[in-house]
Amino acid sequence: MTAKRSLPLAQVYRLIEPGPVVLLCTASGGRRNVMTQSWHTMIDFEPPLIGCVVSEANYTFAALEKTRECVISVPTVEIAAAVVGCGNTSGRTVDKFQAFGLTPERASLVAAPRIAECYADLECRVIDAKLRHRYNLFVLQVLKAWRSISRKPPRTLHHMGKGRFMVAGRTISLPSRMK
């Protein structure tokens, strides 16, 4: 049995972050931007739907609300410094692509850019924004998905709070009814 102690409720998110830290890219008014995000979750498989929380205080919120499209890029540990840098600066005052050495690539179905250095990119359209002002929640439909041709499992970053990250990458196989 494992000994346990009480955890402050404000730290619960550190236990259940739903997936890897991502870079959320937008383009609005001729200006591209990228923000670091870890509050997102899969909602459905086909078509793929993703719930995504973007604070109204973030520069990205207005672009996402206006254009209703974005790209979710999945970075790996190799660009961790850029991921943290994008999360600690505002697109209001900084061109984050230039400042952090990220290479924008043209997406095929949306105006927002993909990121060349990332393992994967998901071109998305907002299909539901009814809860954006109450919970900052946007529901995105993935329109096109791209991933690296590398067979190596990606070493993705998982936010644990206060500048701490866990790195995923080791793959194990266990019996499952799903094939």
Structural account:
The chain contains 5 helices and 11 strands; from the N terminus they run αββββαβααβββαβββ. β6 and β7 form a beta hairpin. It has 179 residues and is α+β, with helices and mostly antiparallel strands. It has a single domain, classed as Pnp Oxidase, Chain A (Roll), CATH 2.30.110. The longest helix has 9 residues. The mean pLDDT is 92.
Order of helices and strands: HEEEEHEHHEEEHEEE
- State the CATH superfamily name: Electron Transport, Fmn-binding Protein, Chain A
**CATH architecture descriptor text:** Roll
Major β-sheet profile:
7 strands, antiparallel
Roughly how much helix do the residues carry, as a percent range? 10-25%
What is the CATH T-level topology?
Pnp Oxidase, Chain A
CATH class: Mainly Beta
Regarding quaternary structure, how should these chains be classified? single chain
Mean pLDDT: 92
Task: Return Rg in Å.
Answer: 17 Å
Shape: globular
What is the number of strand segments?
A: 11
Total of DSSP H or I helical runs spanning 4+ residues: 5
Gap from first CA to last CA: 33 Å
- Which stretches are low in confidence, meaning pLDDT under 50 for 5 or more residues running? none
Class by alpha and beta content: alpha+beta
Strand order, sheet with most strands:
2-1-5-8-9-4-3
Bin the strand percentage: 35-45%
Query: What's the number of domains?
Result: 1
Question: Which terms would index this structure?
Answer:
single chain, 179 residues, Pnp Oxidase, Chain A, 7-stranded antiparallel sheet, 5 helices, 11 strands, 16% helix
